[in-house]
Amino acid sequence: MRRNLEDTIKFLDEVWHLNTTAIAYHLDGWDAREGEEATKRTRKSVFLNPEIMLDEQLSLMKIRSAYPDDRVPFFHPYLGVGVYASAFGCEIIFPENEQPWTKPLLYLENITEVYSLKTPQPQNGLLGKVLEYVNYFQKEKQEYPIRLTDTQSPIDSASLIMKYEELLIAMYTNPKEVHHLLKMVTELIIKFAKLEKSVVKDFSPNHSPQIYQPSDWGICLSDDLIAILSPELYREFALPYVNILSEEFNGVFIHSCGDFSHNLGNMLKMKNLRGIDFGVTEMPIENIVEKLDGKTLFVCHLGLNTKLRFNDTFEYLDYVFQRRKSNTHLFVLVPIFSTKGEKIPLDRVSKILEGK
Protein backbone atom coordinates (compact mmCIF):
# COMPACT_ATOMS: atom_id res chain seq x y z
CA MET A 1 0.00 0.00 0.00
CA ARG A 2 1.33 3.40 -0.91
CA ARG A 3 0.06 4.95 2.31
CA ASN A 4 -1.03 3.82 5.72
CA LEU A 5 -4.72 2.98 6.02
CA GLU A 6 -5.74 6.36 7.40
CA ASP A 7 -3.98 8.25 4.60
CA THR A 8 -5.40 5.85 2.00
CA ILE A 9 -8.93 6.62 3.16
CA LYS A 10 -8.24 10.36 3.09
CA PHE A 11 -6.90 10.03 -0.45
CA LEU A 12 -9.87 7.96 -1.59
CA ASP A 13 -12.28 10.48 -0.08
CA GLU A 14 -10.64 13.10 -2.27
CA VAL A 15 -10.94 10.81 -5.30
CA TRP A 16 -14.65 10.20 -4.71
CA HIS A 17 -15.37 13.88 -4.16
CA LEU A 18 -13.56 14.69 -7.44
CA ASN A 19 -11.05 16.89 -5.64
CA THR A 20 -8.08 15.23 -7.36
CA THR A 21 -7.31 13.61 -10.70
CA ALA A 22 -4.67 11.35 -9.14
CA ILE A 23 -5.48 7.75 -10.04
CA ALA A 24 -6.70 5.31 -7.40
CA TYR A 25 -6.17 1.64 -8.11
CA HIS A 26 -6.56 -1.94 -6.94
CA LEU A 27 -4.29 -4.79 -7.94
CA ASP A 28 -6.73 -7.64 -8.59
CA GLY A 29 -6.06 -11.35 -8.30
CA TRP A 30 -3.80 -13.33 -6.00
CA ASP A 31 -0.99 -15.84 -6.04
CA ALA A 32 -2.42 -19.08 -7.45
CA ARG A 33 -1.01 -21.35 -4.75
CA GLU A 34 -2.06 -19.14 -1.86
CA GLY A 35 -5.40 -18.44 -3.53
CA GLU A 36 -6.17 -22.14 -3.80
CA GLU A 37 -5.34 -22.60 -0.15
CA ALA A 38 -7.65 -19.73 0.74
CA THR A 39 -10.60 -20.81 -1.41
CA LYS A 40 -10.57 -24.59 -1.66
CA ARG A 41 -14.04 -24.97 -0.11
CA THR A 42 -17.11 -25.33 -2.26
CA ARG A 43 -19.00 -22.14 -3.07
CA LYS A 44 -22.07 -23.56 -1.34
CA SER A 45 -20.18 -24.13 1.91
CA VAL A 46 -18.93 -20.54 1.86
CA PHE A 47 -22.39 -19.10 1.26
CA LEU A 48 -24.15 -21.16 3.90
CA ASN A 49 -21.64 -20.91 6.76
CA PRO A 50 -20.68 -17.48 8.15
CA GLU A 51 -17.63 -18.97 9.89
CA ILE A 52 -16.27 -20.28 6.59
CA MET A 53 -17.12 -17.04 4.80
CA LEU A 54 -15.30 -15.03 7.46
CA ASP A 55 -12.23 -17.28 7.28
CA GLU A 56 -12.11 -17.12 3.49
CA GLN A 57 -12.39 -13.34 3.41
CA LEU A 58 -9.70 -12.98 6.08
CA SER A 59 -7.41 -15.25 4.06
CA LEU A 60 -7.85 -13.15 0.94
CA MET A 61 -7.37 -9.93 2.92
CA LYS A 62 -4.04 -11.28 4.18
CA ILE A 63 -2.87 -12.12 0.66
CA ARG A 64 -3.96 -8.81 -0.80
CA SER A 65 -2.55 -6.74 2.06
CA ALA A 66 0.89 -7.20 0.47
CA TYR A 67 -0.17 -5.39 -2.70
CA PRO A 68 1.04 -1.77 -3.03
CA ASP A 69 -2.35 -0.30 -3.91
CA ASP A 70 -5.31 1.66 -2.51
CA ARG A 71 -7.22 -1.26 -1.05
CA VAL A 72 -9.19 -0.85 2.16
CA PRO A 73 -10.15 -4.21 3.74
CA PHE A 74 -13.86 -4.88 4.28
CA PHE A 75 -16.07 -7.82 5.05
CA HIS A 76 -18.85 -8.52 2.55
CA PRO A 77 -21.99 -10.40 3.72
CA TYR A 78 -22.69 -11.76 0.24
CA LEU A 79 -25.39 -14.37 -0.39
CA GLY A 80 -25.90 -13.81 -4.10
CA VAL A 81 -27.77 -11.36 -6.29
CA GLY A 82 -31.21 -12.64 -5.29
CA VAL A 83 -31.35 -11.63 -1.64
CA TYR A 84 -33.98 -8.93 -2.20
CA ALA A 85 -35.98 -11.25 -4.47
CA SER A 86 -35.89 -13.88 -1.72
CA ALA A 87 -37.68 -11.46 0.61
CA PHE A 88 -40.63 -11.57 -1.82
CA GLY A 89 -40.68 -15.36 -1.57
CA CYS A 90 -38.43 -16.38 -4.47
CA GLU A 91 -36.64 -19.68 -3.95
CA ILE A 92 -32.85 -19.45 -4.00
CA ILE A 93 -30.87 -22.50 -5.10
CA PHE A 94 -27.25 -22.94 -3.96
CA PRO A 95 -25.28 -25.21 -6.34
CA GLU A 96 -22.06 -26.72 -5.02
CA ASN A 97 -19.67 -24.55 -7.02
CA GLU A 98 -21.68 -21.84 -8.72
CA GLN A 99 -23.36 -18.60 -7.78
CA PRO A 100 -26.86 -18.92 -6.31
CA TRP A 101 -29.79 -19.14 -8.71
CA THR A 102 -33.11 -17.35 -8.21
CA LYS A 103 -36.40 -18.94 -9.26
CA PRO A 104 -38.98 -16.34 -10.37
CA LEU A 105 -42.41 -15.98 -8.79
CA LEU A 106 -44.17 -14.02 -11.50
CA TYR A 107 -44.87 -14.68 -15.16
CA LEU A 108 -47.03 -12.96 -17.75
CA GLU A 109 -49.81 -15.44 -17.11
CA ASN A 110 -50.04 -14.53 -13.41
CA ILE A 111 -48.69 -10.98 -13.39
CA THR A 112 -51.77 -9.57 -11.66
CA GLU A 113 -50.71 -11.57 -8.60
CA VAL A 114 -48.20 -8.79 -8.02
CA TYR A 115 -51.02 -6.99 -6.21
CA SER A 116 -51.33 -9.93 -3.81
CA LEU A 117 -47.67 -9.98 -2.82
CA LYS A 118 -47.13 -9.24 0.85
CA THR A 119 -45.03 -6.18 1.56
CA PRO A 120 -41.57 -7.66 2.22
CA GLN A 121 -39.76 -6.73 5.40
CA PRO A 122 -35.98 -6.22 5.64
CA GLN A 123 -35.63 -9.37 7.76
CA ASN A 124 -37.47 -11.61 5.27
CA GLY A 125 -35.82 -14.29 3.15
CA LEU A 126 -32.04 -14.25 2.88
CA LEU A 127 -31.94 -10.64 4.08
CA GLY A 128 -32.37 -11.99 7.59
CA LYS A 129 -29.37 -14.26 7.00
CA VAL A 130 -27.35 -11.28 5.79
CA LEU A 131 -28.05 -9.52 9.08
CA GLU A 132 -26.99 -12.66 10.97
CA TYR A 133 -23.71 -12.69 9.03
CA VAL A 134 -23.18 -8.99 9.74
CA ASN A 135 -23.61 -9.56 13.46
CA TYR A 136 -21.28 -12.57 13.38
CA PHE A 137 -18.57 -10.66 11.48
CA GLN A 138 -18.76 -7.77 13.93
CA LYS A 139 -18.64 -10.07 16.95
CA GLU A 140 -15.58 -11.94 15.67
CA LYS A 141 -13.62 -9.12 14.00
CA GLN A 142 -15.13 -5.80 14.97
CA GLU A 143 -12.10 -3.85 13.74
CA TYR A 144 -13.06 -4.39 10.08
CA PRO A 145 -15.68 -2.35 8.21
CA ILE A 146 -18.59 -4.16 6.51
CA ARG A 147 -20.06 -3.61 3.06
CA LEU A 148 -23.64 -3.41 1.94
CA THR A 149 -24.82 -6.81 0.72
CA ASP A 150 -25.16 -7.25 -3.04
CA THR A 151 -27.82 -4.76 -4.07
CA GLN A 152 -29.28 -5.03 -7.54
CA SER A 153 -31.13 -1.99 -8.87
CA PRO A 154 -34.94 -2.10 -8.67
CA ILE A 155 -35.26 -3.13 -12.32
CA ASP A 156 -32.56 -5.80 -11.95
CA SER A 157 -34.22 -7.30 -8.87
CA ALA A 158 -37.59 -7.18 -10.63
CA SER A 159 -36.06 -9.28 -13.42
CA LEU A 160 -35.32 -11.96 -10.81
CA ILE A 161 -38.76 -11.85 -9.20
CA MET A 162 -40.46 -12.04 -12.60
CA LYS A 163 -39.15 -14.21 -15.42
CA TYR A 164 -36.61 -12.03 -17.21
CA GLU A 165 -37.91 -11.97 -20.77
CA GLU A 166 -41.52 -11.83 -19.61
CA LEU A 167 -40.76 -8.75 -17.52
CA LEU A 168 -39.50 -7.07 -20.69
CA ILE A 169 -42.72 -7.99 -22.50
CA ALA A 170 -44.81 -6.78 -19.55
CA MET A 171 -43.30 -3.32 -19.90
CA TYR A 172 -45.45 -3.09 -23.04
CA THR A 173 -48.46 -5.18 -22.03
CA ASN A 174 -48.76 -4.55 -18.27
CA PRO A 175 -46.85 -1.37 -17.36
CA LYS A 176 -48.95 -0.67 -14.26
CA GLU A 177 -48.12 -4.04 -12.76
CA VAL A 178 -44.43 -3.58 -13.53
CA HIS A 179 -44.41 -0.19 -11.82
CA HIS A 180 -46.19 -1.68 -8.81
CA LEU A 181 -43.45 -4.28 -8.47
CA LEU A 182 -40.69 -1.71 -8.94
CA LYS A 183 -42.12 0.48 -6.19
CA MET A 184 -42.17 -2.47 -3.80
CA VAL A 185 -38.58 -3.40 -4.62
CA THR A 186 -37.41 0.20 -4.21
CA GLU A 187 -39.07 0.49 -0.80
CA LEU A 188 -37.44 -2.77 0.31
CA ILE A 189 -33.97 -1.62 -0.77
CA ILE A 190 -34.42 1.59 1.22
CA LYS A 191 -35.55 -0.27 4.33
CA PHE A 192 -32.85 -2.91 4.22
CA ALA A 193 -29.90 -0.68 3.32
CA LYS A 194 -30.81 1.69 6.14
CA LEU A 195 -31.22 -1.22 8.54
CA GLU A 196 -27.86 -2.76 7.67
CA LYS A 197 -26.16 0.61 7.97
CA SER A 198 -27.77 1.17 11.37
CA VAL A 199 -26.34 -2.06 12.83
CA VAL A 200 -22.87 -1.79 11.28
CA LYS A 201 -20.29 0.20 13.21
CA ASP A 202 -18.19 1.02 10.15
CA PHE A 203 -20.30 0.76 6.99
CA SER A 204 -19.54 0.99 3.27
CA PRO A 205 -22.43 1.38 0.79
CA ASN A 206 -20.38 -0.35 -1.92
CA HIS A 207 -20.65 -3.94 -3.07
CA SER A 208 -19.38 -4.13 -6.68
CA PRO A 209 -16.57 -3.86 -7.40
CA GLN A 210 -15.30 -4.12 -3.86
CA ILE A 211 -13.58 -0.78 -3.49
CA TYR A 212 -13.73 1.84 -0.77
CA GLN A 213 -16.71 4.20 -0.99
CA PRO A 214 -17.48 6.82 1.69
CA SER A 215 -20.40 5.77 3.89
CA ASP A 216 -22.39 8.93 3.18
CA TRP A 217 -21.61 9.14 -0.54
CA GLY A 218 -24.46 7.30 -2.21
CA ILE A 219 -25.54 3.67 -2.58
CA CYS A 220 -23.98 1.15 -4.96
CA LEU A 221 -26.41 -0.49 -7.42
CA SER A 222 -25.77 -3.26 -9.92
CA ASP A 223 -27.84 -2.06 -12.86
CA ASP A 224 -27.10 -4.46 -15.71
CA LEU A 225 -30.41 -3.90 -17.49
CA ILE A 226 -29.14 -0.44 -18.43
CA ALA A 227 -27.18 -2.28 -21.13
CA ILE A 228 -30.30 -4.11 -22.33
CA LEU A 229 -33.18 -1.63 -22.20
CA SER A 230 -33.82 1.01 -24.82
CA PRO A 231 -33.41 4.62 -23.64
CA GLU A 232 -37.20 5.00 -23.65
CA LEU A 233 -37.83 1.91 -21.52
CA TYR A 234 -35.00 2.73 -19.14
CA ARG A 235 -36.30 6.28 -18.72
CA GLU A 236 -39.78 4.97 -17.85
CA PHE A 237 -39.07 1.86 -15.79
CA ALA A 238 -35.61 2.28 -14.26
CA LEU A 239 -34.48 5.89 -13.97
CA PRO A 240 -37.26 7.10 -11.62
CA TYR A 241 -36.46 4.39 -9.08
CA VAL A 242 -32.71 4.94 -9.28
CA ASN A 243 -33.38 8.60 -8.52
CA ILE A 244 -35.59 7.74 -5.56
CA LEU A 245 -32.69 5.76 -4.11
CA SER A 246 -30.29 8.57 -4.92
CA GLU A 247 -32.41 11.00 -2.92
CA GLU A 248 -32.54 8.59 0.02
CA PHE A 249 -28.81 7.85 0.09
CA ASN A 250 -27.17 11.05 -1.18
CA GLY A 251 -26.29 9.66 -4.59
CA VAL A 252 -25.77 6.44 -6.55
CA PHE A 253 -22.76 4.49 -7.77
CA ILE A 254 -23.73 2.36 -10.77
CA HIS A 255 -22.15 -0.94 -11.83
CA SER A 256 -23.10 -2.49 -15.16
CA CYS A 257 -21.75 -5.16 -17.41
CA GLY A 258 -22.05 -4.78 -21.17
CA ASP A 259 -22.24 -1.74 -23.43
CA PHE A 260 -24.66 0.88 -22.16
CA SER A 261 -23.55 3.69 -24.48
CA HIS A 262 -27.14 4.15 -25.67
CA ASN A 263 -28.23 5.01 -22.11
CA LEU A 264 -25.54 7.54 -21.22
CA GLY A 265 -28.12 10.26 -21.78
CA ASN A 266 -30.21 8.71 -19.03
CA MET A 267 -27.18 8.53 -16.77
CA LEU A 268 -26.84 12.27 -17.15
CA LYS A 269 -30.31 12.49 -15.59
CA MET A 270 -29.35 10.47 -12.52
CA LYS A 271 -29.27 12.65 -9.44
CA ASN A 272 -25.86 12.78 -7.78
CA LEU A 273 -24.22 10.09 -9.91
CA ARG A 274 -21.15 9.40 -7.78
CA GLY A 275 -19.44 6.90 -10.05
CA ILE A 276 -19.74 4.30 -12.83
CA ASP A 277 -18.09 0.88 -12.84
CA PHE A 278 -17.66 -0.69 -16.28
CA GLY A 279 -15.53 -3.14 -18.23
CA VAL A 280 -13.43 -1.39 -20.86
CA THR A 281 -13.50 -4.54 -23.01
CA GLU A 282 -17.29 -4.23 -23.22
CA MET A 283 -18.06 -0.52 -22.80
CA PRO A 284 -16.06 1.97 -24.94
CA ILE A 285 -14.41 4.28 -22.43
CA GLU A 286 -14.31 7.12 -24.95
CA ASN A 287 -18.12 7.20 -24.98
CA ILE A 288 -18.25 7.67 -21.21
CA VAL A 289 -15.51 10.29 -21.30
CA GLU A 290 -17.36 12.22 -24.00
CA LYS A 291 -20.61 12.38 -22.00
CA LEU A 292 -19.57 12.38 -18.35
CA ASP A 293 -15.94 13.50 -18.10
CA GLY A 294 -15.33 15.57 -14.97
CA LYS A 295 -18.85 14.89 -13.66
CA THR A 296 -18.31 11.57 -11.88
CA LEU A 297 -15.74 8.89 -11.00
CA PHE A 298 -14.94 6.25 -13.64
CA VAL A 299 -14.10 2.83 -12.20
CA CYS A 300 -12.47 0.74 -14.94
CA HIS A 301 -11.93 -3.00 -15.05
CA LEU A 302 -11.39 -5.76 -17.58
CA GLY A 303 -14.73 -7.21 -18.60
CA LEU A 304 -15.69 -10.20 -20.70
CA ASN A 305 -13.38 -9.38 -23.64
CA THR A 306 -16.35 -9.14 -25.98
CA LYS A 307 -15.00 -6.22 -28.00
CA LEU A 308 -11.35 -5.85 -27.05
CA ARG A 309 -8.53 -8.14 -25.99
CA PHE A 310 -5.29 -6.99 -24.42
CA ASN A 311 -2.05 -8.93 -24.49
CA ASP A 312 -1.06 -7.82 -21.02
CA THR A 313 -1.81 -5.43 -18.18
CA PHE A 314 0.37 -2.68 -19.60
CA GLU A 315 -1.48 -2.66 -22.91
CA TYR A 316 -4.74 -2.34 -20.96
CA LEU A 317 -3.39 0.57 -18.92
CA ASP A 318 -2.09 2.33 -22.04
CA TYR A 319 -5.52 1.97 -23.63
CA VAL A 320 -7.23 3.59 -20.63
CA PHE A 321 -4.70 6.39 -20.22
CA GLN A 322 -4.75 7.34 -23.90
CA ARG A 323 -8.48 7.98 -23.67
CA ARG A 324 -8.65 10.03 -20.52
CA LYS A 325 -8.61 13.82 -20.47
CA SER A 326 -7.15 16.33 -18.04
CA ASN A 327 -10.30 16.30 -15.91
CA THR A 328 -10.95 12.53 -15.95
CA HIS A 329 -11.30 10.96 -12.50
CA LEU A 330 -10.20 7.31 -12.49
CA PHE A 331 -10.21 4.32 -10.19
CA VAL A 332 -8.54 1.48 -12.10
CA LEU A 333 -8.76 -2.23 -11.28
CA VAL A 334 -5.52 -3.78 -12.48
CA PRO A 335 -5.08 -7.53 -13.11
CA ILE A 336 -1.83 -8.85 -11.66
CA PHE A 337 -1.56 -11.76 -14.11
CA SER A 338 -0.94 -11.69 -17.86
CA THR A 339 -3.19 -13.56 -20.29
CA LYS A 340 -0.62 -16.38 -20.09
CA GLY A 341 -1.00 -16.66 -16.33
CA GLU A 342 2.33 -15.01 -15.56
CA LYS A 343 2.48 -12.68 -12.59
CA ILE A 344 3.34 -9.12 -13.61
CA PRO A 345 5.91 -6.96 -11.74
CA LEU A 346 3.75 -5.09 -9.23
CA ASP A 347 6.30 -2.36 -8.57
CA ARG A 348 6.32 -1.49 -12.26
CA VAL A 349 2.53 -1.18 -12.26
CA SER A 350 2.61 1.03 -9.17
CA LYS A 351 5.21 3.35 -10.69
CA ILE A 352 3.14 3.70 -13.86
CA LEU A 353 -0.08 4.48 -11.99
CA GLU A 354 1.45 6.82 -9.46
CA GLY A 355 3.21 8.71 -12.23
CA LYS A 356 -0.02 9.48 -14.07
From TrEMBL:
Gene3D superfamilies: 3.20.20.210. GO terms for biological process: porphyrin-containing compound biosynthetic process. Residues 38-194 form the Uroporphyrinogen decarboxylase (URO-D) domain. The lineage of its organism: Bacteria, Candidatus Desantisiibacteriota. This is Uroporphyrinogen decarboxylase (URO-D) domain-containing protein. GO terms for molecular function: uroporphyrinogen decarboxylase activity.
